[in-house]
Amino acid sequence: MIRVWICISLLVLTFGCASPVRELWPPQEGARAHTIIVSVDTWHAMIAFPQEAPGEVSRRRPLFEEWGYAEQSWYLEGRQGLGGGLRALFWPSAGVIEVGLQTQVWAERTSQPPSDRFTFHISEQGYIRLRRYLQSSIAALDPVFTAGNTNFYPASRSYHFFHQCHQYSARALREAGLPVSVFWAFNRGSFAAQLRRAERIAAEGKP
Asked: pTM for the whole thing?
């Protein structure tokens, strides 16, 4: 029993509270920064980039380019239920990368509340790394499905319990230098708790 608790303690120390990547986040005062918005609801997580909408549209409503990750069979093919949930979690299966233009971020339009919206400012280098990671997660540029202004592309990695939407988003944010642990982003609660901590770090200006 003692060995079990020692192993648990080591895991907590190893994968617990992540630190910011100093040279990436938070951005230096006066340096160019980019805004991103992270949405987290009961089952899903999305990362949004505010966009400059053309002409009158920009004065009437905002526009967001939003990225997410999901299991293809569950999200696009309707193969859900208990069997679908077990397959999605415990059997590596095809994933899709969702890229869309929206007038509201996911936290404001989700049908699966509760939801949280987190806003962060990232450095230029962090923004480049984040974009590079998101682009690299797409396996092919031909979408497998299109709905309105949203395209679903084949993902470069399989979907399973250790690589689902919260961990996908956490890995992307880590590329931008934010203090999030991919290991601990296994559900809404653990991921949102890390994002709240990141908000506090940004507000206080220290880890």
From this structure: 0.83
